[in-house]
Specification:
This protein has 659 residues and is an alpha+beta fold. The protein has four domains: 199 residues, Alpha-Beta Plaits; 120 residues, no CATH class; 117 residues, no CATH class; 151 residues, Sandwich (Jelly Rolls). 39% of the residues lie in helices and 20% in strands. The protein is built from 19 helices and 24 strands. Strands 1-3-4-2-5-8-10-9 form an eight-stranded mixed β-sheet. Strands 15-14-13-17-23-20-21 form a seven-stranded mixed β-sheet. Strands 16, 18, 19, 22 and 24 form a five-stranded antiparallel β-sheet that branches.
Length: 659
């Protein structure tokens, strides 16, 4: 098709249907026969005319069936307008399936159509034509599509949302991210998705509807392997700026290394594998690279699905590290002095709030809150918030920070008691826990209520406990609550920060102990004690706390004006027994840079360099038991650096005020 898609030339003809009115968002659809000029030169005008006639019949019939409007045709190309993005995609699939069927029933040269779709708000002229950037981008995307291929813009993918087909029509539709494309006429690269669908029956072609020839598939397979090896090599070059042995990254890179080795051994020998299978295998790694490389520019509606997809394959810690800018593709890259300042400036910027629901949200939203569960306060608030956030496009990390900023004591309130706080609004923050469960067991949140009602009925006094039990057992909270706490503090500490029971601020001239005057969770008041005597300052601090089921409590040690570094020693007991039910992390400065959480060893830990190597330490003590109340004691000592001795002997020494 002519590159100027706005309709110059006498060969362009407007169809009568173009007078049908459209308003608001429109999906512009272009189709084009691939290799038509070469085909004409090789087989002559008569054969080419037959191909054009066949395409015209197939395309027009499907456009009519799916409610499209032919805006104009030009040679072997169509420009069509759809009022619904889903209709445009379904029409494209139907065209490719029909073309594939026609090709299977004919000998000799075959037709191959490329289709491109973009969704936006183009300018509509009086004669029914459309002009503007939306139209131009659709044409460029079509030009990038290969034979039997459907490519769509990012806007089309999200407006159309998830599409389910009957098995007879091809099964589930999938969108494969084909990355950023440099398109003529557009200064910035555009992200493009390929539309594929699963075969309805054995032997029916996948993806773009017609199985390519053996030669084409061999070429495609080799190209896919080459691309895969490039992606995997880049993943193997990722480093964590704070932890060279970051477990989640090492595990990811082990998978990448294993996969690259398998591809390298395969070489050109497919052994039944397809190019699509290769590209599907490397998709999670490509998504990770996107999160790492485009962290500063990726829009929220793009970040959210990538965030969920990468977390599902590689775990939440790796996604959080990417979100915090702790992953780099430069091997051995050191953080430059200016980077910390830039990070602090980013931390001050307001984070995006949940905006108005769009067509994307409507398409991807989970089922709304079932009124039968409205009497269970904690559940109804958490589920309503989750069903609103899930399709919003707001990244999990941003949503978490916003919620912790409102309720920094959220994790210190037991789930079933959360509806008793702030007129039930605090309970909504537990959508974070529901998403944790859903991420581990996709689809679980869509079935839990029906299961609970089947087993316990709809009375709130029986339904509430049953929902809690299913979350604990089916949602595996007993085993994974610790991981949930780790994911939260990895994002929320030090900013916006958690509500803490107590803290220690160490200065050259004094040690300041900070605690709460009451035992009320969320109490904003603080009381302080300042110690100046060396004997008092170096004594143990014992912080005693009663832990409700599935809750966490937080403590910190930070440096004030400190010229001489200190050592921080910590140990935990639970019900008077040594315990490792706590995460700790070091804060490198007062705003954003920190290490990743580590479990507190049963024997305790000694962290040197307070005031020199790190600004402070945060500790999250957690109770993963869903039913038992546990009494925990965190024992902390801040001391000048000196000869090391066993953690146990140090902590057994009595002394120092209890807090």
């Amino acid at each position: 098709m002519n590159e100027n898609v706005q309709g110059e030339g006498s060969s362009s003809q407007a169809a009568p249907e173009a007078s049908v009115p459209f308003s608001g968002t429109v999906s512009i659809f272009f189709s084009d026969i691939r290799g038509f000029t070469d085909y004409t030169e090789e087989f002559g005008d008569e054969a080419a005319s037959r191909i054009v006639h066949e395409q015209d019949t197939i395309v027009r019939s499907q456009i009519e069936a799916f409610g499209g409007v032919v805006v104009k045709t030009q040679g072997d190309s169509f420009m069509v307008a759809f009022s619904a993005a889903r209709g445009a995609i379904l029409c494209a699939i139907a065209i490719q399936r029909t073309v594939a069927e026609a090709n299977r029933n004919q000998a000799g040269p075959r037709m191959g159509i490329g289709i491109g779709i973009n969704t936006g708000e183009p300018i509509r002229q009086e004669d029914g034509d459309y002009i503007g950037g939306t139209v131009n981008l659709a044409a460029r995307i079509c030009a990038a599509a290969g034979p039997r291929q459907i490519l769509v813009a990012e806007s089309t993918r999200y407006v159309a949302g998830r599409i389910e087909l009957r098995r007879s029509d091809g099964g589930a539709v999938e969108y494969i991210d084909r990355g950023l494309h440099e398109l003529k006429g557009f200064p910035e690269a555009k992200r493009v998705f390929e539309v594929t669908w699963h075969p309805a029956t054995f032997g029916e072609p996948t993806a773009s509807a017609e199985a390519p020839s053996t030669g084409e598939e061999e070429f495609a397979f080799k190209a896919a392997v080459q691309r895969a090896n490039g992606v995997l090599t880049r993943v193997l070059g990722i480093v964590h700026l704070d932890d060279s042995a970051f477990p989640a990254l090492l595990e990811c890179q082990a998978k990448a290394s294993e996969l690259r080795l398998a591809f390298s051994r395969a070489g050109g020998d497919r052994r039944g594998a397809t190019a699509k299978e290769v590209l599907d295998q490397i998709l999670p790694f490509e998504n990770l690279l996107t999160l790492t490389l485009e962290r500063e520019t990726l829009p929220e509606e793009r970040w959210a699905p990538l965030d969920a997809a990468v977390a599902r394959v590689f775990g939440r810690p790796l996604v959080n590290a990417a979100a915090r800018g702790r992953l780099s593709t430069g091997i051995g890259t050191a953080e430059k002095p200016g980077h910390a300042a830039a990070a602090r400036e980013r931390a001050k910027e307001p984070e995006p709030a949940m905006g108005a629901r769009s067509a994307v949200a409507d398409a991807l939203a989970p089922p709304p809150l079932d009124e039968r569960a409205a009497g269970v306060g904690w559940w109804s608030a958490a589920y309503a918030a989750w069903s609103q956030w899930k399709p919003s496009g707001l990244a999990w990390a941003h949503a978490l920070r916003e919620e912790i900023r409102r309720y920094p004591y959220l994790l210190s309130v037991q789930l079933r008691a959360s509806a008793d706080h702030d007129d039930g609004r605090l309970a909504g923050g537990y959508f974070l826990l529901l998403e944790h469960v859903e991420n581990l067991s996709p689809g679980f949140m869509r079935t839990i209520l029906e299961r609970a009602i089947d087993e316990a009925g709809v009375e709130p006094r029986t339904l509430g406990p049953k929902l809690y039990q299913l979350l604990v057992d089916g949602g595996r909270l007993r085993e994974t609550y610790a991981a949930f706490v780790r994911d939260v503090i990895q994002v929320a500490v030090p900013t916006p920060g958690m509500w803490a029971d107590a803290g220690v601020v160490e200065r050259d001239d004094a040690t300041v102990l900070i605690s709460r005057p009451t035992a009320t969770v969320g109490d904003a008041k603080e009381q302080t004690v300042q110690l100046a005597e060396l004997q008092d300052r170096g004594a143990q601090r014992r912080f005693l706390v009663t832990m409700q089921p599935l809750t966490s409590r937080f403590f910190y040690v930070t440096s004030g004006k400190l010229n001489t570094a200190r050592d921080v020693e910590m140990r935990l007991t639970a019900n008077d027994q040594p315990s490792d039910r706590a995460w700790y992390l070091t804060v490198r400065d007062s705003l954003s840079v920190r290490s990743d959480p580590k479990l507190l060893p049963v024997a305790g830990v000694s962290l040197p360099g307070l005031g020199r190597h790190h600004f402070g330490v945060w500790v999250a003590v957690f109770n993963p038991d869903p039913a038992e109340v546990v009494t925990c004691e965190l024992i902390v000592r801040v001391k000048p650096p000196g000869p090391s001795s066993s953690a146990a002997s140090r902590f057994m020494r009595p002394g120092g005020p209890a807090r």
